[in-house]
Amino acid sequence: MPKENPIPVLHAEGLTKRYGRREALSDVDLRIPAGRVVGLVGPNGAGKSTLLNLACGLLEPTSGSLRVLGSRPAASAAHLARVGFVAQNSPVYPSFSVADHLRLGAHLNPSWDQGMAGRRIAQVGLNPGQKAGRLSGGQRAQLALTIAAAKRPELLIFDEPAAALDPLARQEFLLNLMEFVAELGASAVLSSHLLGDIEQVCDYLIVLCDSRVQIAGDVPDLLAWHHRLVAPHGDLGGLPAGVEVVRVEQGTRHGSAMVRTDLPPSELPFRVEPVTLEELVLGYMSRASTPVARTGAAAGRGAR
């Protein structure tokens, strides 16, 4: 079995970005291992696009540090070639044909794989002579994905690439994304507010809310660490040490709490139920929106 690359694809320490007085990212610590397909989720305005633009070298941090594939983002032309980026709305040049885009990609990228690009364009049914401005949203997304992947990067970054697509086009886009990741042996970071997309393709999760990382880790581990405790009449007191309450919901006949703990379910009180990935994400987003969380008093923030 091959050893995991010890150099993280993204490593942030105290990463902060301000726009004037507004803080888009605040003291972010992250260490994402290589070989993961990462889902970056959070509400609008949480800082997702800011984090990805920092990772691509399009923005400079206000303070703290960020390294991508072991180097400062966009440190050199060679480093730029190791990262493929698809921005929101899959931007392309409207007056350029599909073939023009591929020629430009070949001109700008020394590791360009023309065979891959041509094969993928044919696979998704794009006409090389078609102007990009006349392509559908799904076709533009496929073109942008092909250009990013034909660079043969080590890291693919996607900022809400499928948000505007219809369900069928989005499904096709995600399938092609996973095919590229497998073919290249690349890592990927996918920002999305569509939890179904994250569940379908991602094995690592980052929840970003209120400019901070609320939780991060491999999806199987996160689901194993979190449980729902259900108690009659809402009596959820007397929890053992080492159990962190993330979210409480009180009903008329019973109450439940989503908790995070390393303890096995057999050592937890009350009835123990598993949580879904959607429940986990919503739990941390809900906690981040409370006044206590916004003032930083909530425990357990950040990457695990």
From TrEMBL:
Cell membrane recorded as keyword: no
Q: Which residues form the ABC transporter domain?
A: 10-235
Q: Which Gene3D superfamilies match?
A: P-loop containing nucleotide triphosphate hydrolases (3.40.50.300)
Record keywords: Oxidoreductase included? Answer: no
Q: Which domain of life is it from?
A: Bacteria
Pfam family of this protein, just one? ABC_tran
SMART domains, A to Z? AAA
Give the protein name, as stated in the record.
Answer: ABC transporter ATP-binding protein
Source species of the chain: Actinomadura chokoriensis
